[in-house]
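2024-03-11 09:14:02 INFO receiving multi-entity request
2024-03-11 09:14:02 INFO entity count = two
2024-03-11 09:14:03 INFO echoing inputs for audit
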Amino acid sequence: MTESPPKVLVVDDAATVRLYHSKLLGDAGFHVAEAANGLEAVEAALTTAFDLFLVDINMPRMNGYTCVETLRSETVGTPAPVVMISTEDRPGDADRAYAAGANLYLVKPVAADRLVRVCRMLTAGRGDAA
Amino acid sequence: MNALLAQFLAEAADLLAQVDEGLLQLEREPGDPALVNEVFRVAHTFKGSSGLFAFPELTRLTHAAEDLLDAVRGGGLSLDSGMTDDLLASFDLIRGWLAHVTTHERLPSSAAGDAARLITKLRAPLGGEKAQDEAAAVVHVARRVVPAWLDHFDQRWLTEASTWLRTTSSRMRFLRYTPDQGCFFRAEDPLHLVSEIPAVDRVDVVTPDSWPPEFDAYACLIGFVVATRAGVGEIDYLFRYVGDQIEVVELDGEAIRRHLTGEPPTATPHDPELVADAQAVLAGALRCLTLGDTISGTRLSATAHAVGAAARALGEPVDAAEADPPELREIVTRLLGDAAPTEAEVPPRPAIEMPADKPDRAHADDPGGQVGTKILKVDQEKVDHLMELVGELNVAKNGLPFLADAAEEEFGSRVLSRRIRDQHAGLHRIAEDLQAAVMDVRMLPLSVAFNRFPRLVRDLGRRLGKSVELTVHGEDTMADKDVIEALGDPLVHLVRNSLDHGVETPAERLASGKPPTARITLAAVADGDAVTVEIGDDGRGVDPDRVKRKAYQKGLISEDELETLGEADAVDLVFRPGFSTAEQVSDLSGRGVGMDAVRAGVAKLGGTVTMKSEPGRGTSTTLRLPLSMAVTQVMVVSVAGQRFGVPVDLVQENIRVPAAEMSRMLHSEVVVLRGEVVPVIDLARVLEMPWTPDPDSDRAILVVSLGDRRAGLLVERFHREVDVLLKPMEGLLAYAGEFAGTALLGDGLVLLVLNVKEVLGLADRVS
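2024-03-11 09:21:47 INFO inference complete, emitting structure
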């Protein structure tokens, strides 16, 4: 197995948040790609096998829940871990995130070291479940 | 400035513009759920990004605005214009702050006070201030003092809630309500109050330790404990009359867990934070496995995958890949049970520093490619520079035909001449494509020029006490960025004029049988190489007689004209320099410039302005501008041996007419062109150049059309069409209105490009 860095897709409509996450994870040794909404994320997932998804909830065109549901659907069918990052911790958000197929639900702003730690943990054994 | 902040500022500008537009649209279509949602979403995105920086006031103010929008979104509140004012003011304040941040990288010192003032206003419709809660929310300080009454909750539920809150790193408000025994006599209804608490997760009844021996139906002996996600403001508002009877605490899962276990837990040998995260993943998996339907397929393998990862992190690798849901649940339960709960608390930080600037590995060799927005934001100067280079390339290219002529005439080589022409043809094609491509880059939608108007119309309308609705059409029409930039001022002037002079007050409108709300329309249409922008209103219109009288008083027209000028020409008088003066200009539309400035500004862009008006029905002003102004195609003609350029878009055709077919009509020469009489203007005479056409040879006539008017320009010779970079006339020549500008030709000569409109006007005066 080649030791290529894990590929992460950062999905967020806020360009600033995308930049922040990309830079953070890029510096931590991940390959980072970005998508500005759920639809772009699904498109990207169809062409690239990502090892991890960081998905915002509130986005135009396709929100985070639908995005994760689609990633988990037969159309895309990616078993890669999904971390949903919500700006607002609203009642029921976490439930919906897990119901959609997310593996972890976090609330912004996520401390830099925690985000990197979580991403490393979730990508440590890539390919196991594939 | 670090890259993240720069990105935020750029993004913020876009988001703020969207919020403004959305709010104004909302005011027109109140309660449109899609619109409310959109505005909320944009505000939300903005807040999300702002949370990355240490601008607490910014986050708090956005949060307050977002809460207000959220209440509107939830249908609990309808947005009135006062709220819209407050929201707009908040975003204006933020815009100002960001300008300050751009230069100083911090908020102005007045930020805290300004923010507090607006937050109070924004919170007012929601039932008052909750600044303290706000501060707590921003720094995410979880209360750790756990009141004993927490035990009144169902213990199983409390255990679950604790796990759950830890999983999501979230908090919940716990409320104890102990109604006064005699509350029924004060018309209080405790049960009703409790049922009114929003976002309740759990209610348990607190019964007294011992019941009195005698039942008293009028004494309230029970109390309630409630777990809710409602905001402190909401709770306080609800219980405002019995504030002394409630206790509210906000707790996180960890505090509850510690309360439940009753002792400080032991630390694990692992990185406690990692353990906490792994447990969060496991708890999530458990949640997922117990949520409704059985999971299978990708969902199952994804969960197994995550459980595997968490197990590894806990130092207890498991083989979960093939597990079915019950097995997986068992594994997760075991892992969660085994792993001693930790003291670890993972406090999210309010502000995060940008990671150090290392080489950007993230994108350098990204196999997935940049999936995000495929839009490249480029400094506008770079595009301008590119455009200049294209212009120079065009000029250099235009030199080749001259070289070809020289090859033939001076060196007698036809072959070489032909080859140069072939080269020119190829180069010309590429240069044209290149130019089109660069032009396309410079194209912007007219919405860029239009989007300030909803706000302007609203604010001015309110100031003037006029009710106005602005309708915008064709904002997707594209035009060159220079055109759009230059369009700004004339448009503002025209719209202000409409508001100030055109539109009547609601009372006047009702009196004349019109709906009280006036309508101003901004409409853009692409029209070949030009774009037409129409500013229309249904106001009182322009009174041609008043205009004529005024023009006469100011000495702009003669007594004859006062009698003979038609209505359309009379309306056109408003464009005459000196027509509008301070006395009739109000503080709004008048800034010392009148309609003549509008016309001059538009003419500078190579465009035209016309005004049509129906007294009592409204006025409509039409601006016609070239889609692009960087490169102009001109037809070169010569008169008296001197070359002049005429913009190609005005040229209809070049004709040669035998001298005998020229005729005269009312003292002027005309030519009959396919049955239509076209007046012929002797360009040499108009420009005062010594030249008389050879009486025997054919006349070369360039037929131009300008608006409704057609005319033939009598010239000496036609030359080729060239693409030129038009430079405006400068210095002493700036006042030579008959020239639109100068351009450098390929052979180094300077070409004067005619301003056809002025030339026609000049011709009228000469004759």
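2024-03-11 09:21:48 INFO post-check: DSSP finds 26 helices and 22 strands in chain B.
2024-03-11 09:21:48 INFO post-check: Residues 129-144, 264-269, 338-373, 581-592 of chain B have pLDDT under 50 and may be disordered.
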